[in-house]
Write a structure and sequence with these properties.
- By secondary structure, the protein is α+β, with helices and mostly antiparallel strands.
- It has two domains: 9-269, Roll (2,3-Dihydroxybiphenyl 1,2-Dioxygenase, domain 1), CATH 3.10.180.10; 300-329 and 369-393 and 419-558, Beta Barrel (Lipocalin), CATH 2.40.128.
- The chain has helices at residues 40-50, 96-106, 165-176, 225-234, 332-344, 386-404, 558-581; strands at residues 9-17, 29-35, 54-55, 62-65, 68-73, 86-92, 114-116, 125-126, 132-137, 143-147, 154-162, 179-183, 187-192, 195-201, 217-221, 239-244, 255-259, 265-269, 306-309, 373-375, 436-442, 445-450, 455-460, 477-483, 486-492, 508-517, 520-528, 537-545.
- Strands 19, 20, 21, 22, 23, 24, 25, 26, 27 and 28 form a ten-stranded antiparallel sheet that branches.
- It is globular.
């Protein structure tokens, strides 16, 4: 897996009145906080679902959180909020214990919630004289404080981290107005309307700049931006960007950028500023491809060598969704949101560096392909045979037993958990990370290595006699051949222990690798298993060449190394609990 520091963004917009500032000469409004998200529509949905915000009508990039507007925008980021000049944002709830319990029950699967635990393992803490509070993270790295304040529900404050908190708050008050005070008589802050701007001592000298991080900037609206800019320059404030109407702005209001105390990036906007329309780059539709002649190896075969990645295909469902029966290709926005849902539907609790397919983090544009199955033409799996339906029911019951029964030993775990294999064609399917595919060729052979679990297949491309007619393996016995520019691999004699969608040991898998452009490798596979399906079916997607950036590094599979010990020790603990309860 290759680390790529890119990801997109969210904006928290706040429209509240502020007091007159002599240095500013005009009343300001606290306007927004720029926070990290990946897909605007998915971020709106997440904050609506978990933090009780409401989508802003007519927009897919904004949510209202009790009078505070969150506007979501895609842009690059170098990491989360902690350690920067803006440490976190905060929301208040009447019953925090119930709220935190509900969020903890969600877990990190799906588009879930990651909780921060205190040193004693708890998620809630009571600060005498202040609030009961705890912390969570959204899926994009934004640290969020949840607290219990009966005086205000919803969005509560922005919390700065400063080398000199007193001086930082004085600068904001002089520049933007507001009422200096102490929240609950303890925390120094600046009250802008009914939303607080708080500041605490940064634990390690100067905070890191906010630009390019999860909270990229905070923003204030000024009635006369040009006049305010003139006065700020007179005070020696330098602008990163001069006042101007941004490209693709939704309104004619101007925006400017400057850097405030502790490297906090600040946006100044005119009233009516409504953000910028995102320009989502679209992947080319499959039907627009031009004819392509693949380069040749020195011995004359089509050259498929290189490091390829399936990141762009992550999120494509195997079967065509029923509500997209007549859709030829997704829009760019739909494709981006779908891939983000795929990322959130996986183990997104990993740090950003592991999530290759986080939007903006991966340079590959999400595929607009509607589904992987291309035959049958409806994009759905064919009807199962009676035996196939029986085996599927048995497999469901086995999975239920698997989740309820403590394993006796490693052999009771799945091949994936044991880091043995994902099977075929499962090992080829893209996920949130480790989507690298490396192909190396030589006369008479092609070696194909997949990054996940580092499985390597050596495929003979010249006819040969099968080795051991009764021998079966996890990945079967392959035989390759060239059909024009296409590498065709037929594989049979599986051991049946790594089934794909119910396939049996009798499955015949036919794969086709075709270079369809300088950086595009089409992968198609046909599953023929008459014991399970009434007819063969074919699916596929496209890999992208990424020799310059992607590298297949060691796949240590610590989930199997350390996780196995924890799984089995936990199982033995449950055995003891069950034995004690039965006495």
């Amino acid at each position: 897996m290759t680390v790529r520091y890119v990801a997109p963004i969210l904006i928290v917009s706040v429209a509240v009145a502020a007091a007159q500032s002599p240095a500013r000469g005009a009343e300001a409004k606290y306007h927004h906080v720029h926070v990290t998200a990946a897909s605007p529509s998915e971020a709106v949905g997440w904050y609506a679902k978990y933090l009780d915000c409401a989508p802003v009508p007519g927009r897919n990039d904004a949510a209202d959180c009790g009078g505070v507007e969150l506007v979501f925008v895609s842009q690059s980021t170098m990491g989360g909020t902690q350690g920067t000049g803006v440490n976190h944002i905060a929301f208040s709830y009447a019953d925090l214990a119930a709220k935190m319990a509900a969020l903890e029950a969600v877990g990190v699967r799906g588009s879930g919630v990651r909780l921060q635990r205190f040193d004693d393992g708890t998620t809630l803490r009571e600060d005498p004289g202040l609030f009961r509070h705890g912390f969570i993270f959204d899926p994009w790295g934004t640290r969020i404080e949840l607290l219990e304040d009966g005086g205000r529900q919803g969005f509560h404050h922005v919390h700065l981290s400063a080398a000199d908190p007193e001086a930082a708050l004085a600068w904001y008050r002089e520049t933007f107005g507001g009422k200096a005070g102490k929240l609950r008589g303890k925390l120094d802050g600046l009250l802008l309307g009914d939303v607080w701007l708080l500041a605490a001592q940064h634990p390690q000298g100067e905070p890191a700049p906010t630009r390019g991080r999860a909270v990229d900037h905070i923003g204030f609206a000024l009635p006369n931006l040009s006049e305010a800019a003139r006065k700020l320059r007179k005070r020696g404030v330098a602008f990163q960007e001069e006042p101007a109407v941004p490209d693709n702005a939704r309104a004619a209001a101007k925006r400017a950028y400057l850097v405030g105390p502790d490297s906090v990036r600040i946006a100044l906007v005119e009233p009516g500023f409504a953000g910028v329309e995102a320009v989502v780059e679209a992947a080319a539709a499959e039907e627009t491809r031009e004819p392509y002649a693949a380069p040749r190896t020195p011995w004359g075969e089509p050259d498929l060598q290189g490091v390829w990645t399936g990141n762009a295909a992550h999120g494509i469902p195997l079967e065509r969704p029923l509500d997209l029966a007549d859709v030829q290709a997704l829009t760019a926005e739909q494709a981006a949101a779908r891939r983000e849902r795929g990322t959130l539907g996986s183990i997104w609790g990993y740090e950003r560096e592991w999530r290759d397919t986080t939007l903006g983090y991966d340079k590959m544009i999400p595929s607009r392909q509607v589904a992987m199955i291309v035959d049958p033409p409806d994009g759905r799996l064919p009807e199962m045979t009676p035996d196939g339906r029986r085996m599927a029911a048995e497999a469901r019951r086995a999975r239920e037993r698997y989740t309820r029964t403590p394993p006796a030993g490693p052999e009771d775990m799945t091949p994936y958990v044991r880091c043995i294999t994902r099977g075929l064609p499962g090992m080829m399917m893209p996920s949130i990370y480790n989507n690298g595919l490396q192909i190396v060729q030589g006369p008479g052979h092609v070696a194909i290595q997949k990054e996940m679990i580092h499985e390597t297949r050596v495929i003979p491309t010249e006819p040969r006699q099968p080795v051991g007619p009764k021998l079966t393996t996890w990945l079967g016995d392959p035989q390759g051949r060239w059909e024009g520019d296409t590498l065709v691999i037929e594989t049979s004699r599986f051991n049946g222990k790594s089934s794909y969608r119910g396939s049996t040991a009798g499955m015949k898998l036919t794969e086709r690798y075709t270079r369809v452009g300088p950086t595009k490798l089409e992968y198609r596979f046909t599953v023929d298993d008459p014991a399970v399906w009434t007819r063969p079916w074919t699916a596929g997607f496209v890999f992208d060449l990424d020799n310059d950036q992607y590298e297949l590094v060691e796949y240590a599979c610590h989930e199997g190394n350390y996780g196995m010990f924890n799984i089995l020790s936990g199982a033995r603990a449950r055995d003891k609990e069950a034995a004690g309860a039965g006495r």
